[in-house]
Amino acid sequence: MAEDDKYVKDGTVDYRNNPAIKKETGTWRACPYILGNECCERLAYYGINTNLVNYLKFQMNESSVVAVNNVTNWSGTCYVTPLLGAFLADAYLGRYWTIAAFSIIYVFGMTVLTLSASVHGLKPPCDDNNTCHPKGIQIGIFYLGLYLIALGTGGIKPCVSSFGADQFDDSDEIEKKKKSSFFNWFYFSINIGALVASTVLVWIQTNVGWGWGFGIPAVAMAVAVVSFFSGTRLYRNQKPGGSPLTRIFQVIVASFRKFKVKIPRDTSLLYETADEESAVQGSRKLDHTEQLSFFDKAAVETQSDKIKGSVNPWSLCTVTQVEELKSIIRLLPIWATGIIFSSVYSQMGTLFVLQGNTMDLHMTNSFQIPSASLSLFDTISVIFWVPVYDRVIVALARKFTGHKNGFTQLQRIAIGLVISIFAMLIAGTLEMVRLRTVREHNYYEMKHIPMSIFWQVPQYFVVGCAEVFTFIGQLEFFYEQAPDAMRSLCSALSLITTALGNYLSTFLVNIVTDMSTRNGGPGWIPDNLNYGHLHYFFWLLAVLSVLNFGFFLFVAKFYTYKKAIGPTS
Predict the structure, then answer these.
(1) 217-233: per-residue pLDDT in tens?
(2) What residues contact residue 265 under an 8 Å CB cut-off, 6+ apart?
(3) Which of 16, 285, 364, 368 is disulfide-compatible with 566, CB 3.0–4.6 A?
């Protein structure tokens, strides 16, 4: 059997040409191990991320603004490192071995972080007033563990969803229909892990200790690794197709080298391999599209190309290779609209938590809920909306739209963008009501005003609803519209919007803090929010979200979908 077969079992067998192997591997029989891995890994990640702002503020003795910025910077880094993991997966290692290798780094980072919060001499000492005074070496070890986790997650995030989708054969209509449902349940599994993190783990961190609070996520990550390896014999593994960046630069260089060459009107004259299969390993051929025609110059065969005999890929590229670059460029405007949405989403781990810290945390007379645990309502919202969307909304929408999935991926993303606007309006309105209560009763120096934290539930629930539409829509959109041999890279691109959203949030916080405190005032986001104007920041995000939605409608109107033809190589 040919060595360049796309799908392999144990690295050797093409399941498509062997019905017995196909029956034994992939589809939903392989997915429980992948979903179990994702559930445990997300439990570990959110076990750190959900309450990190409080750890930084009270254990590392950082101010509110510094703590918020450090959380968003770390979260952002967790969504930048997937570029590295995606490149290695698509070019050299394949998704399976990338996930395996980076999982080990992840476990090591979790171990270092746990030691920094539990071992005497490594954890910050605190005085009788519970004010902690971390030393330089303690800060260094803590952030070493934190950023090792960021590196480890870089090989997992861009690969797991694509690896799960790889278990469904695009050439098999029955399996292809199941793939859309996989993305819904993949996101569902993420939020099961997040639910445990935002309830049990946050309570343990607040009431038992940070050593246990970080140690349990470390164990969960170890379980994630075991779950992943347990399904090895059932997986369909896609071989790496070589460096996607090299192919992209080859098209760019060849296009500029042939700057003066005219493109033939008959596009069938553009260069493509004569074989039915694509020259790019692990990819189907792509049909020619009219947009971005400048890059078609790379596929124009000149006299010098013919004289040389063998093809120089830096001078002559196939139509499929050119269309790979076009597909990436067409994705970028849609990709950019995810940045503002991710800024809205990032507020759940920062300003929503600080807002909750000022409110009444009591569930009963004797039990207080940690403010970070309110994110469980975002999780509950996702857990509620995923099956409702998958089983009810799709069926109803299909009757009106006639689309097999109810909505197109772009329509699904758009709905989530609209819902996110209302999340910020709700959060801003709550803060206005809270501040009015502070003013009316002179509660400025009160740590927890007599206003229940459960008034925050609607804003968390609405953000969760928006996630089900936009984040899952993005997962599916970037997988489907990515060139076959660049799917990990495009998954990483979709994740980078979360990183840039976190960085944008940091930038906006710094800008509004600098501007609002310029005349000596407390500013929008002071350490004591009772003196601030946090609702102004939520209004700002709402306005940016409206502008972002308008831009999305414009670019979506002109988007051209990818056209794959023929079998994979």
Answers:
(1) 999 999 999 989 998 88
(2) none
(3) 285
